Known about the structure:
With 78 residues, the chain is α+β, with helices and mostly antiparallel strands. It has helices spanning 22-25, 29-40, 69-75, and strands at residues 2-6, 9-12, 16-21, 44-46, 54-58, 62-65.
Amino acid sequence: MYLFLGGDITIRSDDVIGIFDIEECSTSRTTADFLNASAARLQIVNISDNMPKSFIVTSNKTYISNVSHNTIRKRKAF
């Protein structure tokens, strides 16, 4: 099964580790460290044309999306 993240990006839903609200998580030092480390390893894919609302962690990349985490979660059967 596949999951549409926004823009032209569709990923395998089996690869998803977590879907997070970027605003809610941005105050956490742990989240900041994770995103910085992912960026340093060139594993961040920014698919957001506007203000980012969520980030999706997969087995090999982290996607930054302007689609809300609730909307993406509704698209995926957990």
